[in-house]
Amino acid sequence: MSADLNGTQKAVRSHPPAFDIRVDRVPIPKVEHPDDAIVKIRLAGLCGSDLHVFRGHEDVHEVLTCGHEFLGEVIALGESFKPGSDRRPPLYSSLKVGDTVIAPFTVSCGECHFCRIGFTCRCERNMLFGTPATPGGQAQYVRVPFAGGTLYNLSSIAKAASTMRGNINSIADTSLLLLCDNLPTGVFAAFQALSHPKFLPMSTGLPYPLSSLGASAESEALTLLPEDRALTIAVVGLGPVGMCASIALLDMLGARQLKYKVVAIEPVEARRKRMEAIFSIISKTEKGFGEYVVADIEIGKALVKEWTGGIGCNAVIEVVGNPSALTLAYDVVRPFGGIHSIGVHQEPMMPFQGRQLYDKNVSFDFGRCPVRAMLPMALDLLLRRQDIFGTVGGDGSLIEKVVSIDEAAKAYEEFNTGKCNKTIFDPWR
Amino acid sequence: MSADLNGTQKAVRSHPPAFDIRVDRVPIPKVEHPDDAIVKIRLAGLCGSDLHVFRGHEDVHEVLTCGHEFLGEVIALGESFKPGSDRRPPLYSSLKVGDTVIAPFTVSCGECHFCRIGFTCRCERNMLFGTPATPGGQAQYVRVPFAGGTLYNLSSIAKAASTMRGNINSIADTSLLLLCDNLPTGVFAAFQALSHPKFLPMSTGLPYPLSSLGASAESEALTLLPEDRALTIAVVGLGPVGMCASIALLDMLGARQLKYKVVAIEPVEARRKRMEAIFSIISKTEKGFGEYVVADIEIGKALVKEWTGGIGCNAVIEVVGNPSALTLAYDVVRPFGGIHSIGVHQEPMMPFQGRQLYDKNVSFDFGRCPVRAMLPMALDLLLRRQDIFGTVGGDGSLIEKVVSIDEAAKAYEEFNTGKCNKTIFDPWR
Q: Mind telling me which PANTHER family this protein's record contains (chains A, B) (predicted)?
């Protein structure tokens, strides 16, 4: 209990029904439960899904503290973290006051079935930051429930033996903040596409179903030709998550030495320009395996047709979350292709007849990223691609700017109307 | 050209618009293309999907010869099969007059990208038997296009070295006929469920995403408990394919030594009774790993709730093909569960809001079985489970009866109204 936690703090709050963001003074949160941590925020991100509350789409009737991306320092811990507290996972005993931490956008206890198997975003005690029950991180302090399961302890990872992990100390906070949501979500989307059984014949060189059984299986099967393994993949939507998904995808394809053509489809020109600048950075190091093009919807569709002789993409990563994005994904996917939808969908019904899905043997993955489980993979990519993730404000960087928390109302307004891209709040500036 | 192929033959034909099956005399088919084979039919199956044409759901305005399940003997071959024909896959040079063959329900060339990677049902030259363009096998003779790719040559497999495969000679034709559609489709459904990345934490014991990367990956992850790996799986629909899917599922779970509870949900009592009889045969050899229950819809839902404390099944195999079956599958699946839909869906739209799918992190596999690619796995199961697949007419057998082709009209009528189960036609009786 090192800080004076009896005062008030600044917090970005959404006032219902919609479009009303204010920076209010509210009490500094206190430990309410033995598993709680209080984190002093160093930086907090503004995310596309914050706009659901801003636009009044979430049926919220209370004032709430926004934000589910934050990086900070642990300043207080509940009783569960005291040395000698037994029967808790190691995550509880290793977290200390003074540690630098980030949180995924959902609370996860680290102790239930879903946490153990890695599906942390569906933890049985799962709560989303930035809701009435769980005040968010766009503030100076935040209370983190089930902190031993939820928080990713960057200090303890930095101390670990691995040389690469040791580099965490030299990484800017703005860069580390991408680990809360956008980067792991992009990694998850790309990983789902490349891990799907319908994708494996291309990546393993074995025909289905041997591709899912491994090379030791008995084979009466045909042999793949090199051209069978040439991949075509589409990314639909180039907001921050779509950009991260594209970068992760190229990284994974390069690591597997697969030949690919990737088209990133996005109607907004400013986003296309930003992605093109990022692609030109990637092309300095990822040579010889693939081709990537940024296109609007019509050009993107035409390109897929031309590249594949009309049969379509092996996989589509959908990062928008509405029926027209799903329809576009269906239009450009080939038979036995996968549609990996990381977009946050709302009330509209699925825009497909059952017969359409049967006729193309389509597979779908839906749903939110289990960030806590994806963080090691995301951190690995973040550390290796500091040429992209380490910069702020350039053409080739994901993050557009860091502003004072006092400018939150303006930042929401600009982000909502597409006038600016990824924005980060400094609550002490 | 050993037989007199200039005469006429009996064929089961559907006369539009619907519900009009006749046994007509039509010309015996001839080789029309160098890749053709003419097969003299020994047995032909009546399949649930034959009922789509029977009921007039397929928008067919011509008389057509029905049926896509047949076993027979090659009696004529086109020029492509002559010794010395080069640049064709081995499948073409090894097929001989006199060979016993079966065909999957779709033609596959064996030479295109989709055939090479094992997605044979979406072959670029794919045609469905029993359509106006490709007369079916409920006849005395059938023409098989792209026969070197399409036909599965049981004679050459029987000659191969493996002892198990050598047993093919002792297997009844009625049993082998199950390889055309029902059995490989059931195997495909079960295999999709068990191969999905969201299922792998339970089968590998590694948390996601390590479960998809293999044990060699770096691990900061939690450890699974034995209870995390206890599986609950539902099969929705117990027609012949649903029964085969259930048998294949239990076989695969047993082979992997996974602990399971399987509920097979079916509203029709006669089908439940048949499946219970089959389960009691399986339980004689599959001991100690699992529990399986056959239930109607309400009891099935209650059972899943009870077994899983309300969280739902790890996977659902949907073998019906309509929106209410999909809705039931969604209701009983847990977050991060897979819905593997092998049912033939029609015009109705998908009965889901995008948000429902996001909120449960659901994955779907849709579409038809690539039978040609699944045949080795299906044959292996067929040979090992002759106690089930080798019988006709008992409580615990899939096949209810073998009738003369002359009784086709009555058989369609009875099958359509649920008065009989799997029926096979003998065109020479």
A: DEHYDROGENASE, ZINC-CONTAINING, PUTATIVE (AFU_ORTHOLOGUE AFUA_2G02810)-RELATED (PTHR42813:SF2), ZINC-TYPE ALCOHOL DEHYDROGENASE-LIKE (PTHR42813)
Nearest in space to A373 (alpha carbons), one of A189, A80, A117: A117
Cα atoms found within 13 Å of the Cα of residue A199, Cβ hemisphere only: 28
Residue A209, preceding peptide bond in cis (omega within 30° of 0) = yes
Backbone conformation region of residue B386, classed left if phi is above 0, alpha if psi is from -120 to 50, else beta: alpha
Please report, for residues A379, B159, B206, the alpha-carbon distance to residue A157 in angstroms, rounded to integers and kept in the order given: 10, 60, 21
Distance of CA A272 to the CA centre of its chain: 19
Find chain B residues with C-beta within 8 A of A350's C-beta. 349-350, 352-354, 357
Strands (E), B220-368: 231-236, 260-265, 290-295, 313-318, 333-341, 363-366
Does residue B146 belong to the interface with chain A, where contact is any CB pair within 8 Å? no
The C-alpha atoms of residue B131 and residue B68 are separated, in whole angstroms, by 9
Are β-strands B8-14 and A127-128 bridged in parallel, bridged antiparallel, or unpaired? unpaired
CB-based contact A355 B346, cutoff 8 Å:
yes
CA distance A351 to chain B (A): 7
Cβ <8 Å between A336 and B119 = yes
Environment class of B401 (CB within 10 Å of its CB; exposed 0-12, middle 13-18, buried 19+)? middle
Q: What is the pLDDT of residues A254-264, one digit of tens each?
A: 999 999 999 99
Q: What is the three-class DSSP state of B121?
A: helix
CB within 8 A of A87, min separation 6: which ones? none
Q: Which residues of B touch A218 (CB under 8 A)?
A: 376
In this model, does residue A171 exceed pLDDT 60? yes
Query: Is the CB of B345 inside 8 Å of chain A's CB atoms?
Result: yes
Q: Judged by CB atoms within 8 Å, which residues 12-31 of A form the interface with B?
A: none
pLDDT (tens digit per residue) in A231-267: 999 999 999 999 999 999 999 999 999 999 999 999 9
Could you give the CA distance from residue A294 to residue A262 in angstroms, rounded to a whole number? 9
Check if B221 contacts A (Cβ < 8 Å): yes
ipTM, interface predicted TM-score of the complex:
0.95
> Which is nearest to B420 in space by CA: B286, B270, B265?
B270
- φ, ψ of residue A370 to 5 degrees: the values are -80, 75
pLDDT in the model for residue A214: 73
Q: Do B195 and A195 touch (CB under 8 A)?
A: no
Rounded to a whole number of angstroms, the distance from the CA of A394 to the nearest CA of chain B is 33
| Residue B406 near residue B427, CB atoms below 8 Å | no
| Interface touch A350/B354, C-beta < 8 Å | yes
pTM of the complete model: 0.95
